[in-house]
Amino acid sequence: MYNILICDDEPDIVNALKIYLNDPEYRLLTASNGREALDLAAREDIHLILLDIMMPALDGISALAKLRETSNIPVIFLTAKSEDTDKILGLNVGADDYVTKPFSPLEVTARVRSQLRRYIHLGGHGGNQTAETVSIGGIELDDRAKAVTLDGDPVSLTPIEYDILKLLMTHPGEVFSPKEIYREVWHDNPLGSDNTVAVHIRHLREKIEINPADPRYLKVVWGQGYKMEDKR
Question: What is the CATH code of the structural domain delimited by 133-228?
Answer without folding.
Answer: 1.10.10.10
